[in-house]
Design goal:
heterodimer, A: mainly alpha, Rna Polymerase Sigma Factor, Chain: A, 2 domains, 9 helices, 70% helix, 0% strand
């Protein structure tokens, strides 16, 4: 691996990882509990992207492929951690550059995170993709299920999230 | 998708706060060297387990020194088990090292199915290989016991053979049975993840597998404690 670190392959990889870092961070927040675990998971996703990179032949959009690798890694990582129900402290979800955003929005965002954490890891992946405004077709491609099933699942997940956010 | 005014706008809430880009990402992103995913950690554990099996060759000179002692038949039995474990250790080393790196570039459903098939094929030989290690450790302490007690345990005695068999093949079988249950729980976790994408229920099966695993671990721990207590009583 050391030799290829220097080559154009590594440069392309670096560009892609920097470009999609925000997405990787969002996935890490959803699947890792502490800041250290999130850092570990982000590293793990970058490692898996590096390993899978030579196999990416442009058969799908790069964002679709990044979602596949990152979510596969997060789901596998989560299996290794076992099931733990935790809640993030609000501070850990607030980034320095989002300080301008008002308190109320932070509270809403925090509540949404807590609601997402109540979902099973696989359902959380579907919810994340929908929240990221992916089309049903793209979600179906990332998850490997039919578009109809995506529709049914997303509808159920959305209803539950809304209910939980309204205090149900 | 009509949005009721009283309902929270989930996408709006989600997109209003964007995460900060990692400060550590400089011009060229460094590539992490070691994976911490469960499959890779398990693989590393299997390689360490191989070393325990291979290190047993150090016990052969001790066994050789005991060959002219009254426990000769028992020592032959122990050496036979050690030899078998060394062969298994070499096989385990070659086999585990030959596993390809898991590349996670497929869709979630296919990846889970592939993981499930791969580990499903490996579960029986892996359980057998992992089960050998506790039995090997027990046999090693038997050998050390014989080296230090100078024939206190009569060679033809039932007690000596009881310890050799209970701490050898029987413990091997039980430890393999425990390893099988442990790996099965892991496989069911993958199946449960698959159920989210394919409308099947695995929760109950997972709970059952976990309780099986826990009871098997408890049985093995009880057998080990029993053997230890019986051994200590014989020494008194």
């Amino acid at each position: 691996m050391k030799e290829s670190d220097e080559g154009p392959h590594h440069q392309e990889y670096s560009v892609v990882v920097r470009q999609y870092d925000a997405l990787i961070q969002k996935i890490c927040r959803l699947y890792a509990d502490t800041i250290e675990e999130r850092r570990d998971l982000a590293q793990e996703i970058r490692l898996q992207l590096w390993r899978a990179w030579p196999g990416f032949a442009g058969h799908c959009k790069i964002s679709t492929w990044i979602y596949q690798v990152a979510l596969n890694t997060a789901l596998t990582y989560r299996r290794g951690q076992g099931r733990r129900i935790t809640t993030h402290p609000l501070d850990s979800l607030v980034d320095a550059d989002s300080i301008g955003v008002d308190e109320c929005k932070h509270e809403q965002h925090y509540a949404l995170h807590r609601a997402l954490e109540r979902l099973e890891p696989g359902e959380r992946a579907l919810a994340l993709l929908w929240l990221e405004a992916c089309s049903y077709g793209e979600i179906a491609e990332i998850c490997g299920i039919s578009v109809n099933l995506v529709g049914v699942r997303i509808h159920r997940i959305r209803e539950r999230l809304k209910r939980w956010l309204q205090g149900g | 998708m009509s949005v009721n005014e009283n309902e929270p706008d989930l996408r709006g809430i989600w997109q209003q706060i964007q995460p900060k880009i990692s400060e550590s990402l400089t011009e060229q992103v460094s590539i992490p060297r070691n994976s911490c995913l469960p499959g890779e950690r398990f693989r590393r554990r299997l390689i360490w387990d191989t070393l325990y099996k291979l290190i047993i060759v150090l016990a052969f000179p001790v066994a050789w020194m005991l060959m002219d002692r009254p426990e000769q038949t028992l020592v032959f039995f122990l050496v036979g088990l050690f030899f078998l474990c060394v062969i298994l250790g070499i096989w385990q080393w070659v086999w585990v090292r030959s596993w390809p790196d898991n590349v996670l570039g497929q869709n979630l459903n296919s990846q889970l199915k592939q993981d499930l098939n791969r580990w499903d094929r490996r579960i029986v030989p892996l359980s057998f290989l992992l089960g050998a290690t506790p039995a090997l450790v027990w046999q090693l302490q038997q050998l050390i016991y014989y080296a230090f007690t100078k024939g206190r345990l009569e060679p033809s005695g039932l007690r000596a053979w009881f310890f050799a068999l209970a701490g050898g093949p029987v413990l091997w079988i039980i430890a393999s049975w425990v390893s099988y249950a442990r790996i099965k729980v892991w496989l069911l976790q993958i199946e449960q993840a698959l159920s989210i994408f394919s409308d099947q229920e695995y929760g109950e099966r997972l709970a059952l597998a976990r309780s099986k695993r826990n009871s098997r671990v408890l049985i093995m721990a009880m057998i080990l404690v029993l053997l230890l207590v019986m051994g200590l009583l014989l020494l008194l």
